[in-house]
Structure formats: structure tokens, C-alpha cells
Model the fold of this input.
Amino acid sequence: MKHLVLSLFAVTGLSAAQRKQTFTGTITDDMCAKADHSKMQMGPTDAECTIACVDIHGAAYVLYDGKDVYTLSDQQTPKKFAAKRVTVIGTLDNKTKTIQVDSITAAK
Done:
């Protein structure tokens, strides 16, 4: 019985750590992770630089919230939000700093 109770606490702890969260920040790429595209200048705008870094240089789309950088599990949807402020809803893996994305929408 004691093991069952401990197992239930462990499962409860895992599910609590894996809850959905809301993140707001700018869609950028991991080569210009802090949304500073002045060094790369892969296009005349930050959006074009972000897309070029992903398409040409194999970078990944990330969310920069002004402090932290999060890799996004969805690498298709962010393209239309390149260099824009968005709200991402998803589950954060703290070890890898990756958000398992449920949705990405323009920030209000």
C-alpha cells in the first residue's frame, strides 16, 4: 500500500510539472536568438533574416521572451510569425528549454 501511495504522488508530480503554460515573446531563430539580426543581416527585415537563417542555414525557430530563449517543437507555424510578437501555449520541457507547442497566435 505504501508503494502505491508513493507511486501516485510521483505520477501527480509529473503531471503537475507538465501542465500547459502561456509564453509571450518574439519569434526568431536560434542563430539570432535574442532577436538581434544586425550581425546576420540575411535580408532587409528581421522577418526575412529569421526565415533565411532557418531555410538556408538550418537554424531553428525559437521564442525569445526578452530574457529566455525557447526552442519550439512546431517548426512550420512560426514562419508566418517571423519577427513578430506572439503568444505560444504549450508544455515546457525545462531540461531542453523546448516548448511542445499547442498553438501560436499573434500577441495582443
Notes: The CA atoms of residues 45 and 85 lie 15 Å apart. Strands lie at 20-29, 61-64, 69-72, 85-93, 98-106.
